[in-house]
Specification:
Length: 360
Amino acid sequence: MRCPQSGAYHRAVAMRSSPVTVVQISSPSYTGTTWLCLLLGSHDRAFTLGPPDRVWALREKNFEDACRVHGRDCPFWSGFARRYDPKANFYLQLADHAQRDIIVINNPTPAHEQAELCHPDLRIRPIRVVRDGRALACSFARHLKIDLHDAITEHVQHLFHRFPMEDDRDDLLCFRYEDFLGAQRDSLDRVGCYLGIEYPRDALEYWKFDHHITSGNAGTIALLKFFQGLPVPNFKDRAFYEGQFDQMRQGQAAFDDHRWRDELGRRELYYFDRFCGHGNAAWGYAPDAFTTQEREAFEADLEGKAPTPVLSAAPDSPVIVILRNLGRRRRALLAVAAGLWVLSLAITAAMAWVLARGVA
Ligand SMILES: [Zn+2]
């Protein structure tokens, strides 16, 4: 894709017609979207919000502590709080306060979309991003503390139809995260064309830009703090992100997270292939190959596991969703606790009966 006009032309047109563009990234959890949001916000016409629901929920609290970079000391958000009018559109006010006409967000809830993103003065530019389902399965397992089988069957399996890969259209851009990582400059230019802007040469060094992101991956946001010399409280995976930052400052690939290759054994890869292979291939990822012996052995193991999940079903009740999110280990603990509770009730009832007989 080639930009038909120069960046100056697009800037002039955008400023003249003054609609506000909202870049709306949709992606599964753990797709590296915080990094992408910060990258796309590294332009003098763009402002990155991240997932917008957290800051939106802070409207009645004066946007206190909204900024994940500067915390309560953030001059940008305290300034916005002073001028914010709850009766007017949030994005139009934000664009005016930031003096930017492109706002980058990801994965808003339907409630937020309906309340703020349907305004006629907003131009929505959707971008869809997916990531290898095997990497997602490991991230789900790691973050939700569930086993890989549950991560595959209860989470990743349901993502493929929600985030279909499509050819680029005038009103939609689709990316595989790994492709973006592998050709960052070209990918950024592709987004620039889609938005009608030219990204500066150093946009990949997103930590050098003025960001006030309000939600997202703590590690990716910590890089902004490392660069600005701000205190960074201890967070999970700190060593990993410090290593990534060192690599990125030396111009090497960013967030090339291959941890999943070590975390998935042959058996887990087979489970993944069994439940998610088709969907992952539709996203464009090459499947793993297995020998006949492996297939037979792993199938025998699977028979001892939970029944094959249903691919599409009616929406689950909130209780079912909560139980699913607990993972197998915590569900087992819950079952033991429930059993003990029932047992204690039975003992209490028996004692009451014995005592009542004694009195009689
Ligand atoms: Zn800030």
